[in-house]
Amino acid sequence: MSSYAIPLWEKPALPIAGTDALFPVRRIYCVGRNYAAHAREMGHDPDREPPFFFAKPADSIVPNGGDVPYPVATKNLHPEIELVVALGSGGWNIPVETANDCIYGYSVGLDLTRRDMQGVAKDMGRPWDLSKGFDNAAPLTAIRPVSEVGHIEAGTIRLNVNGETRQKGDLADMIWNVPETINYLSSLIELKAGDLIFTGTPDGVAAIERGDKLEGHVDGLDDLHISLK
Ligand code: MN
């Protein structure tokens, strides 16, 4: 067996609540504009066009309770509160009817976005990669397994900043629900155990500043606490 020419890095992983085990993170997929009111506030018709996806690096995860340094190259950092699905299995063309069987558990995540950089990318027809995928761009709570919390399909999703509610919606208002999202995404790439899927954010996105304290909530899961430094 060959050895590696440079030191191997640690595999990104999330804690699993209530256990000592870790959930290794393979890839992070994110759904764009999956709540009608958020699609509208971003200037789009929320009619049911097919879902679209972007990705973040696996090592952009930040554990719950951590500090997030204010990223470089932006003056307009937006946190998007999202339900995150952690896959325990995967495949190609997973049917809607059996998609939930692939889910290991759920987490509450922030899709941090350099909104000004994303705006330039949109205007110029350039990729979103670095406006969405940068260091510390994916704070996440410990995963709660399905065996403990069941499937999370409806209920409040909320982001408070310094105690004030910024975003509030209901998971039932997703344009594409979780099984439909897994079905569609698995027609484009092979999903595998260890993949995370950010499922989109409700309306109310706005900038955060250094010193802000963020509290993310999804009914049935742990609250996410992040400070922006
Ligand atoms: Mn998002």
Supply database-style keywords.
five-stranded mixed beta sheet; 229 residues; binds manganese (II) ion; single chain; Fumarylacetoacetate hydrolase, domain 2; globular; alpha+beta; six-stranded mixed beta sheet; 5 helices
In short:
The chain is α+β, with helices and mostly antiparallel strands. The chain has helices at 36-41, 115-124, 129-132, 146-149, 178-185; strands at 13-15, 22-24, 28-31, 53-56, 61-63, 67-68, 77-78, 81-87, 103-110, 113-114, 138-140, 144-145, 156-161, 164-170, 196-198, 213-218, 224-228. The strands form 5 sheets. Strands 4-3-15-8-9-12 form a 6-stranded mixed β-sheet. Strands 6-17-16-13-14 form a 5-stranded mixed β-sheet, with no helix packed on it.
